[in-house]
Amino acid sequence: MADTIKPRDRNDIEAAVQWALGGGKSLEIVGHGSKRALGRPSQHDATLDVSALSGVTLYEPQELVLSAKAGTPLAEIDAVLAAQGQALAFEPMDYGPVLGEPEGQSTVGGVIAANLSGPRRIKVGTVRDHFLGLIAVSGRGETFKSGGRVVKNVTGYDLCKLLAGSWGTLGVMTDITLKVLPQPEAEATLVLYGLNEREAGEAMTKAMGSPFDVSGAAHLPDYLAARLDGLGRSDAATLLRIEGIKPSVAPRIEGLERALRPIHAMAKLDERASRPLWRAIRDARPLAADTEVGARPLWRISTAPGQGCEIAARISPASQLFFDWAGGLVWVAPPAAPDCGAAAIRRAVAEVGGHATLVRGPAAARASVDVFEPVGKALAGLTKRVKESFDPKGVLNPGRMWAGV
């Protein structure tokens, strides 16, 4: 077979995996390749390009369910949903800008495999909460199915949840079914200016505990806020988003403003200014590869909401960073170093709690440091057993997440 295999359907994928098994080969699994530079450097003999498996195969707007082939561009799915006033509520991130790739290259399979949840995660949950079912080919060359086309199903072990965030190491997804939700009719953002990290953390916590149903909470220091259009000034900016039916948004924004007083420097952004701002936060554009920080490594740290400032305080002050998920997600670009700042970041995460992923870094560093959060002995053993159950010969994306897995 050629170095790049481009299957047309599920049977071709089975044949490719069986070829790899028979020849002791390994396969790199890609859609459009937009996240190839994330993870440990690939160790493979051939590339399995599933981008030809594309298209929406079922869409029932009244049932809030959509099925599509794994290689379907996310932009195509967004367009289909938008025509019916619906959307993927988990607001998946586009990694293109931070990895120096064109935007808009994500596929639905890549979004699931990378477990990408955006700013609305604090309100609607993660990708896994919206992932209803799949059809996939295991590393044994066998097709399996999990889940279904209903929001509630009791079909036994929910294997589809296991494949979310597995980075193609357990199976090659061919068909995916997702729960969809109505697109918010309107939105607005309340901006608090000039807060330091701790003050911003307190304000975001208070906002999330308010009755105003905040759907996005982020904080950018002044040097990153200045890189975003629409904020009106270059001070540090704490952003609080409210979404819903049009008549409810304005009074909720006003109520939130009253609840957060006596913070004096505030501004309200309408929908036209709010939407592109939150897309930029979703895609970590303030730390994108096409800015002067592109030479810096980039880390994604997930912790308990409100704990982000505790982690930030333990990281080098020369780092550039901002917060999403009300402080539960920290994007950190430390100064360039051979280990990409791994020692300091792992230490901070160990002290506070959470997990860190190296999103952007040179191949040499990604080969020598843990890209994904290191796991303890018991979890490492479980991870290995799961991998062996799905892919006993290590055919699929070997070593992408951890060495030997």
Describe the structure.
By secondary structure, this protein is an alpha+beta fold. It folds into three domains: 1-183, Uridine Diphospho-n-acetylenolpyruvylglucosamine Reductase, domain 3 (2-Layer Sandwich); 186-282, Alpha-Beta Plaits (2-Layer Sandwich); 285-368, Alpha-Beta Plaits (2-Layer Sandwich). 30% of the residues lie in helices and 23% in strands. The protein has helices at residues 10-23, 74-82, 96-99, 108-114, 121-124, 159-163, 197-208, 222-225, 246-260, 271-282, 308-313, 342-352, 363-368, 377-390; strands spanning 4-5, 27-30, 46-49, 56-60, 65-69, 86-87, 131-138, 143-147, 171-179, 181-182, 186-193, 214-220, 237-244, 266-269, 298-302, 320-324, 329-333, 355-360. The strands form five sheets. It has a five-stranded antiparallel sheet. A four-stranded antiparallel sheet has the order 12-13-11-14, with helices on both faces. A hairpin with a 4-residue loop joins strand 16 (320-324) and strand 17 (329-333). The longest helix has 15 residues, at 246-260. The two termini are 25 Å apart.
Instruction: Return the CATH topology of the largest domain.
Output: Uridine Diphospho-n-acetylenolpyruvylglucosamine Reductase, domain 3
End-to-end separation in angstroms reads 25 Å
Helix proportion: 25-40%
Overall morphology: globular
Are there runs of 5+ residues with pLDDT below 50, and where? none
Number of domains: 3
CATH architecture of the largest domain, by name, is 2-Layer Sandwich
User: Mind telling me the C-alpha Rg?
Assistant: 21 Å
Strand content: 15-25%
Could you report the average pLDDT, rounded to the nearest whole number?
92
Q: Count the helices. How many?
A: 14
The CATH class name of the largest domain reads Alpha Beta
Largest sheet: 5 strands, antiparallel
Q: Quick one: how many beta strands?
A: 18
Structural class: alpha+beta
With strands numbered from the N-terminus, the spatial order across the biggest sheet is 4-5-9-7-8
